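The instructor's notes for this session suggest beginning with a concrete chain rather than abstract definitions. Hand out the sequence below and ask the class to guess, before any prediction is shown, which regions might be ordered.
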Amino acid sequence: MFDTVFGKNNGNDKKAYLNWITLDSSNQLEVIRKLSKSETILIFKHSTRCVISSMVKKQFENAFNSSMGNLKVYYLDVLSFRNISNEVSQTYKVVHQSPQLLIIKNETVVVYASHHDIVQVQIASYL
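After discussion, reveal the predicted structure:
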């Protein structure tokens, strides 16, 4: 299933290619905005108390491969940083949900997905 979603994955190159960047400051949102002008940026909103969020996070991590090694993926703990989650929602005009994935290019959310729909997003097509 993940071959068609994220590209071929031979099982040997999973989590090593996903380097989470903790999103824990409102100032980082400006950095994300600026970076998105020249590269694709992802924000993964996660609830540490939610079983579904944990399952989707694990599936998301396992879907990464070597072609995504340089991708900047921001991890937002929505319970610890709800104010930042609200700011993300307001900035990008996306209703808050958790888990939730936002793909940002040129200062705009080009796609977003929530819950199990996250693993259906073809990230490679936005690189």
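Then share the key points. Strands lie at 20-22, 41-46, 72-77, 100-105, 108-114. Residues 1-15 have pLDDT under 50 and may be disordered.
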